[in-house]
Amino acid sequence: MKSSFRWYGESDPVSLAYIRQIPGMRSIVSAVYDVKPGEVWPEESIQRLADLCAAQGLVFDVVESIPVTEEIKLGRPERDRHIANYCESIRRCAKYGVKCITYNFMPVFDWTRTQLDKAAGDGSTSLVMYWDQLKGLDPLQDDIHLPGWDASYTQEEVRELIRAYGELGEEGLWNNIEYFLERVIPVAEACGVIMALHPDDPPYPIFGLPRVITCEKNLDRYLSIVDSPSNSLCLCTGSLGSSPENDVPAMVRKYSARNRIGFMHLRNVKILPDTSFEESGHLTQKGSLDMNAIIKALTDTGFSGWFRPDHGRMIWGETGKPGYGLYDRALGSAYLNGLIEANGGVIEEA
Ligand code: DNO
């Protein structure tokens, strides 16, 4: 399997020169960040990412993410133009060596946390989601500013979107997923790209917004819409694992055996008694997930795709993008390498 690391481009405080020194590191996971969702990515920007990585002996072959616009998710009139642009961005990425593209189908907001710097007893900080901090908030009445939520929406726009999703409902969202996949997957197939769907994080509805990428039954449904290895998963252990109903090692084993995992996001998460959760560092005994069972599921099934250490804590005084510092992700990477080696897996070099 291929070890990778997320890098936010030239403004990322973590440098490629440091990332390349992590043992076994091969691939960079990045994106073009200065283009509005729905527009086509300029070739020069994609090529620049590829060149910067190549100059450090790294490969830019995973994109995270090309965003799916609300117009596509809601099935609004602009969706055909946005889907055509999406397909063109896939072709352009493929031209510069990208093999796997991550995306998600979460309405309005990507991941949801209530605090990004919760201090643990050892002085490290991490992202958490506490129901106590969400309780009583009504997005249709209150002004809500949760960390990480897209600040480009006004509160009124957020309310309008929440109402629209309320009318659409889960089955409406499924119809729009189908419409998208039927148009996008054939293009990805034709240019040798795996589309890797990220699960909803956390995997249950928030504020009444329909969230469907949540559990095995729904992942089965998603993958059966277009039955192709290009229609695959970015299986994020921490996202699926924040619901106690998901048996993450069993899901990894099943989808990897069927060759439907393109990309693994590997992190642990600690579920609290009221189903709130904390991002706890990668080690099995620090959280609720059996990380060795997850790696064993991958090695037993001959997984050959990409994995990356997902969110780390902030440690050793590092500052930067919450979840995406260098130090704890590098520790996570080394730990995962150890589990892979112990289970007889192979880490492919560039
Ligand atoms: C959080 C990430 C997600 C992920 C997107 C993929 O840190 O794992 O934001 O990139 O959901 O589209």
Arithmetic mean of pLDDT: 95
User: Total helix count?
Assistant: 11
Uncertain regions spanning at least 5 consecutive residues? none
Query: How would you sum up the major sheet?
Result: 8 strands, parallel, barrel
Q: Percent helix among the residues?
A: 25-40%
What topology, given as strand order, has the largest sheet?
1-2-3-4-7-8-9-12
Commentary on this structure:
With 350 residues, this protein is α/β, with parallel strands linked by helices. Helix content is 37%, strand content 17%. The protein contains eleven helices and twelve strands. It has helices at 16-19, 43-55, 70-74, 79-95, 131-134, 155-190, 216-225, 237-240, 248-257, 291-300, 327-342; strands at 2-6, 25-30, 59-64, 100-104, 115-119, 125-129, 194-198, 231-236, 261-266, 269-271, 277-279, 306-309. The strands form two sheets. An eight-stranded parallel beta barrel has the order 1-2-3-4-7-8-9-12, surrounded by four helices. Strand 1, helix 1 (16-19) and strand 2 (25-30) form a beta-alpha-beta unit. Helix 4 crosses helix 6 and helix 9 (248-257) runs parallel beside helix 10. The longest helix has 36 residues, at 155-190. The structure holds D-mannose.
